[in-house]
Structures are given as structure tokens and as C-alpha cells.
User: Fold this.
Amino acid sequence: MTRIALAGISHETNTYCAGFTAKADFYAYRGAKMLGTTGQESDVGGAVDACQRLGCEAVPILFASTQPSGTIERAAYEDFKQEILDGLATAGPLDGCVLLLHGAGVVDGIADLEGDLAAAVRDLLGNVPITASFDLHGNLTQHMADQLNGVFVCHHYPHIDMHQRAAEAVQAVHDMVNSGRRGRCVLLRLPMLLPTTTTYEGVGEEMLERLLWHEVEGGGIDLSWCHGFPYTDVEHVGSFVIASFYEEHGETAIAHAQAFADELWQARERFRVHSLDADEAVAAAQAEQSYPVVIHETSDNCGGGTPGDGTHLLRGMLEAGLGSDACFAFLVDPATAAQAHDAGVGADIDIVLGGKTDHLHGKPLHARAYVKALHDGRVVMQHLFKGTPLNLGPMARLVIDDMDVVVASRRSQTFDQEPFLAVGIDVMKYKYVALKSSNHFRAGFQHLAGAIVTADTPGLTTHKIEVFPRQNTARRLWPLHDNAQFPEP
Assistant:
């Protein structure tokens, strides 16, 4: 039986976040816990399911991940890396390995987590086939690609296909083991800093269709488009096209990768975003006639490293008097959630809500609130990563100026209706539904929404990427530099 090791360290590092990400901030799956993800629409679950389907033995090593946050402490990374290497060394004969990665990992002193880890695994395992699955918000390097026989970046944003792409990475290893062939990967880097762009509509959807066409015509193993992660300050930041192929298809596969990269570059102006502040977003929502209107605060998206306790949009909604027509789920504020739990359902409490992490995301909101409902915060995701448990910590449904406002204790963006339903909110009974997310929410809300309005208030995941200083690259990058060139000189 073919034995395929599964391992990974997955982190989206926002280097503009204050502080470091420690080992204790990660959750780790090992052994039976990794194998127990079968049936979940996650990268680990997809890989385990693929091994079972193909009749391979999945050899679980370690999968460590956490919410997007600041630069990873060196000791934390080195510990996880060593555990993976030790696990691979003691696992017995391995026919191949699939790495479950993100692509935007930055460690203190190591700008390319994925390249460093992949190189260490390659040095240990030698010429066995090694492939990897990635989030599409990665900043990749050719050094990383040189260690791998196949790169499989999720196609969609929201990432509804992470499990499918991990399964394809397993399939590629299986095929290489049986054929004796080895794939090769070539990466093209574009000097583009893309705002968070959904593939559900518009230019993102159109370019994904073009990518898939080029993949078929190129005849390679895979063609991937990594949008990049602009909220990190590394030399290799950008957007990326990656071709994986066997040598006999190399010339054609690379030609189609280059053609798609050229199309991306020519379409760059279509990715520009016109940002709405809180008041403008609320006004735009009120102008809509099809309900519910989903207002998403893209700039305070925990899925990109923000604190999730920003008050800009909530304050704008309260000042506009949306009242009982509106609900908001959720702000991350463990102190306020604990206060509500201590007071109990039916209590009236004076709260200082949000704005506790920094000044960028808004000032704390002083208000009188009625405690409508309480919940332990344990939900199961129903759309993106379907079947995966999510623990938001103690939650409270508060009523502020007749508006339903949900407060949670642990950082996360809102993926679907579950945080609303947990405290008794049916979003279809409201005109305005507010949440914090850039695009993952679309998996759970796009089919429900009469309209979607983007609020781009001050925050660490704003579309206004020109506000972030670039100290670690001297490259000219669009849209920061109108004279940026591709190919780069």
C-alpha cells in the first residue's frame, strides 16, 4: 500500500500586526485527530479522504495552524518544523508526502516559511514525490516551488475548494509513485498588490475562467493563480502564476502560464476598488430596495489579522438609526461577552464595547445594552469548510438602540449564518445584516443577500493598500507605482 505522509504549518502572517504569534496561539492536529477530519471540507480532511479513496495509507504527522496574526516567533516555528521532520524520519518507509500550507507564512528571521519548510522536508525525504496545497492568498517563491513536484493553490475565494485541491495534491503523489515520474514547478511573479477579490463575480470570476482554460490547453499537472497577500512586508510580495508539469509538457505548460500572467497584468486596472467609509456604506445600503442588504466590513477582517473589535461600522449604523431593522454579528470583545454572561439574560448593562486593541479600528462604544441571549460559541460551519467545528468562545446577543449586536470572545470572521442562529437571529427577518469579513462570508450569504455593500473603514485589511509602508522591498509594485513593469526589469 502506498504510504503518503500528511504534514503542514499554515499561517497567514500580517506583518503589520503588533506583536508576535507564539506557539501557544496555534492549534495542532496529530495522529488520530488528523485522520478524524475525514468528511470535513478542509485541506486536512480533503487529503485524508483522498488517501482513503485511492487506497493509500495516510500517515499523519502534524498540522499546526492559527488565526491570521503577526509574525511567528522563531522558536515556535522551529519547534513545529522539527516535530514534522522527526515525525517523517520515524514514520517508516514513505512513498510520498503532501504538505498542507498557506503561502503567506512569515517567521522572525525567515521571510519564506513555506520555502524553508519544504526545503527541509525535501532534504530529509530525497526524491520521493512531494506536493503541496495552498491558500490563494500566498506570497510564493521559486525556491519553494523548486522543492515540490506539484503546487495546488485553491481556485476560489471564498475558499470553497480547499479540500478538493488538497485531494488533487494527494492524487498527484499517487500518480507519480505509480508512474515513477516526477513533476516540476515554475513560478511567475507579477508586481501586483491585489485587493481582496472574490472569484464569485466580476474580474475575479472572469480571470479564474481564463486560468482554467489555460490549464486544460497547457496540458500540465496543474496551473494555479495565487492572488498574493498584500498585508505583509516581504521582498517577494506580489501575485503569482504557478505551473506544475511533467517534462514532456513543460514548454506548452509554461507558455500558457506566461499567457495567463500577461492577461492578469493587462487586466490590473479592473482590480481597483472604490472604498466606502462607514457613513457612505450605510447610505448605500439604505438606497437598496432588495433585502436583506449585507454590509461587510472588509477592513476589520480577522481572517487577515485584524482584531475584530473595530467600531467604525457599528457606530455608523447606530448613528443612522437603523434600529430593529438591523443586526450585526459579530464584534470580538471577550470582556463584554463575559459581562453579559455574568449579568444573565434579561439584564440591562452599561458596556464599553470594542476598540480595546488599538486606535486604528475605532474608539470604544459606550452604550446601555439589554442582554437578549447567551451562547457558548461552539458552532459547526455549514458552507465554507463545511462540517468543521468553530469555537467563538462565550457569545452574547445584545440589544443597543433596538439593534441586535452579537459579541463573541474569540477572533474569527463571520463565515455563515451560524453565529446569528446560535443566539436566535434569523437574518432573513432584517433589512440590514452587518458582519466582518472580506469575501469568505459570500459562501454563506451570497445566495441570501438582496444586495451586498462593502464598508472599507480604517483597519489592517483595508483595500487602501497604499497606506502600508514597504521597508523590505525596493521593487516597483502596482498600484503603488504607475511605472511598475511586467516582466520586471
